[in-house]
Design brief:
The complex is a heterodimer of chains A (about 280) and B (about 325). Chain A is an alpha/beta fold and about 280 residues long. Chain A has 2 domains: about 100 residues, Elongation Factor Tu (Ef-tu), domain 3 (Beta Barrel), CATH 2.40.30; about 170 residues, Rossmann fold. Chain A is built from 6 helices and 15 strands. Chain B has one domain: TIM Barrel, CATH 3.20.20.70. In chain B, the strands form 5 sheets. In chain B, strands 3-18-17-12-11-8-7-4 form an 8-stranded parallel sheet. In chain B, strands 5-6-16-13 form a 4-stranded antiparallel sheet, with no helix packed on it. In chain B, strands 1-2 form a two-stranded antiparallel sheet.
């Protein structure tokens, strides 16, 4: 685990709309210093004496050195907590804890990587792309969403990536279909050595299946509902196969959110697989 | 001037009255990234079970107004892994560790107590009585004084005399004083309350229960008045029994409320999900509140709200004005 997380009261520097999403830049030097691509932060929502007790977790889109260090979060309004965040203005303060989680592992030697992002799940891919390019890697983007306005970061991907392939389910931008539909072509054309993916579970399952077909490693950042983000609440567990072959219910916030795709039992997410360690009726006693 | 915040769980002295609530502090390592575990009054573990447990399916948590519903299902590695990896780590760091235990039968609780008996670094044992009794159609031990007392008596008998046994009570009972009395008669050295009352939340979009398990335990400030009432009633009936109060403590004021109701220690639970620094903050706020009110000893305010109306507490200024 990289550097220990800190809690900071950050000042909101800028707020902006990015297509269907909101982006919030917050001055948080302690977090920006320790950031590595794939890390996330949690924020307290609703202000002091909030009736909303769980922290909201967001991947870090970008860090910049301005004002000692800023972090940028990207989110869509999904409920009362994100609506409160969307109403924040410059100079408001925000309680952040981070950086949290296991970041993306980077390849030792230069190679070709395909970066797959679905909707605003694509947010952490750009910092990852920077880190990969610094190591001499070629990167290719595959971004998707149900419709054009929900594709995140297409412009930046076009500037950074060797190629950028867009896919929307309604065909309003790029190819009609999902990222999983277009991924095999991109992997084949780029002769990719590895895949990184962020997005909903269903997308990650599809991406992992494609990578497995090509026999290349895939790192996925899972999105699972979290309450604390620091590993104490046991809410965000996912069935993952360990090095010893045993399936355990592991915390997406501490052991993840980045996992090797083939280790995550996507078909069993939302259940306790019968052969998981400590499953009811199991024989691991 | 710093206030004397020492408190006692039976004969065991704690340097301060702020504990973590069972199941809310992880293994201790997670919180140690933010503040030292040895500065807690005590670290209370999640409920340890005999065998590893995978817990309940997800979703396990739902946010409700000023509360949280959870149905984690005691996920944990089992007592052997706990003794091998978690307890020694806590002991090395000088944390006082209250080990919470959970089981489905009296025999399982007893076996756990026996397994913990030889282990170094166990400050106290807390019995999570809100586990389904597999020998009683899955009804929880805590709902029945006799069932609770049976567990307490057998754990007490299996635990070394110098380690206090704390019975954790559920508010989901008709008469919490009766259960409390049965536990004390069964040998409990202290009581902790409240465990989470059972609640439920339904998603009106999917038209299904939010939690995979259907129901879950409700915690957070939403249940604090319930906790204050339970502590008040039990302290009034059993004034000599130490009580660890818990239920929605977010600030020092909330902790003081439970202490005034009769708790000699308070546990911080759900607040840790919101603020990893909650324990040291609550302690600092509590100390400031005591000083503002002119108290230099925590023990002087335990149960103070029970004094008759009109009676004034003795304050420092009274003492200073005394001609003697």
């Amino acid at each position: 685990m990289a550097g220990s997380p800190v809690q900071v009261t950050g000042t909101v520097l800028t707020t902006r709309r990015v297509d269907a999403y909101h982006a919030l830049t917050v001055v948080a030097p302690g977090i920006a210093d320790r950031f590595r691509p794939g890390h996330f932060v949690t924020v307290a929502v609703g202000g002091r004496n909030s009736s909303m007790l769980t922290r909201r977790a967001f991947t870090i889109h970008d860090v910049k050195p301005d004002y000692g260090g800023t972090v940028e979060l990207v989110f869509g309004v999904r409920g009362a907590g994100t609506a409160w965040l969307a109403d924040l203005r410059a100079r408001d303060t925000l309680d952040l804890v981070g950086p949290l989680g296991r970041p993306f592992p980077l390849p030792r030697d230069p190679c070709t990587c395909v970066l797959v992002g679905d909707e605003h799940g694509a947010a952490p891919l750009f910092a990852l792309g920077d880190a990969l390019q610094r190591r001499g890697c070629r990167i290719d983007f595959v971004l998707g969403a149900p419709s054009a306005d929900r594709v995140f970061g297409a412009l930046r991907a076009r500037r950074m990536g060797e190629t950028t392939t867009l896919a929307t389910e309604d065909g309003s931008l790029g190819m009609r279909g999902t990222v999983t539909d277009v991924l095999p072509g991109v992997i084949a054309d780029a002769r990719a050595d590895a895949v990184y993916a962020c997005g909903p579970m269903e997308t990650l399952r599809g991406v992992t299946a494609v990578a497995a077909e090509f026999g290349i490693p895939v790192q996925v950042a899972v999105e699972e509902f979290m309450a604390c983000g620091i590993g104490v609440c046991m809410t965000c567990v996912v069935p993952v196969i360990g090095d010893d072959g045993v399936t355990r219910m592991v915390r997406a916030c501490v052991e993840g959110p980045v996992f090797r795709g083939e280790r995550v039992r996507f078909d069993d997410v939302g259940t306790i697989p019968f052969d998981a360690l400590g499953a009811p009726g199991g024989r691991h006693a | 001037m710093t206030a004397d915040l020492r408190t006692y769980l039976a004969h065991v002295e704690l340097p301060n009255p702020v504990l973590t609530a069972s199941g809310c502090g992880g293994t201790g390592r997670e919180l140690a990234q933010f503040s030292d575990v040895h500065r807690l009054g005590a670290f209370v573990t999640r409920s340890i079970t005999m065998a590893p447990r995978a817990g309940r399916p997800t979703p396990r948590m739902a946010e409700t107004p000023s509360g949280l519903l959870n149905a984690v299902g005691l996920q944990g590695p089992g007592v052997e892994a706990f003794l091998e990896r978690e307890l020694p780590w806590l002991a090395e760091r000088g944390a006082r560790t209250v080990v919470s235990i959970g089981g489905g039968t009296v025999a399982e609780y007893t076996a756990l107590a026996r397994r913990l008996a030889g282990a170094a670094g166990v400050t106290a044992v807390e019995i999570n009585l809100s586990c389904p009794n597999v020998e009683d159609r899955g009804r929880v031990f805590a709902r029945d004084g006799a069932a609770a007392a049976e567990v307490v008596a057998s754990v007490r008998a299996a635990t070394p005399y110098e380690v206090p046994v704390i019975a954790k009570l559920s508010p989901d009972v008709a008469d919490i004083v009766a259960v409390a009395r049965a536990c004390v008669d069964g040998g409990a050295d202290a009581l902790s309350m409240i465990n989470t009352p059972v609640g439920m939340s339904i998603d009106v979009d999917t038209m299904r229960p939010v939690l995979a398990a259907g129901t879950g335990g409700l915690s957070g400030p939403a249940v604090r008045p319930l906790a204050v009432r339970c502590v008040w009633q039990v302290h009034a009936a059993l004034p000599g029994v130490p009580i660890v109060g818990m239920g929605g403590v977010m600030t020092g004021r909330d902790a003081l409320e439970l202490i005034l109701a009769g708790a000699c220690a308070v546990a911080v639970g759900t607040a840790l999900f919101h603020d990893p620094y909650a324990c040291p903050r609550v302690l600092r706020e509590l100390e400031e509140l005591l000083q503002e009110r002119g108290f230099d000893r925590l023990a002087d305010v335990v149960g103070l709200a029970h004094r008759p109306a009109g009676a004034q507490p003795r304050t420092r200024s009274d003492l200073e004005e005394s001609s003697l």
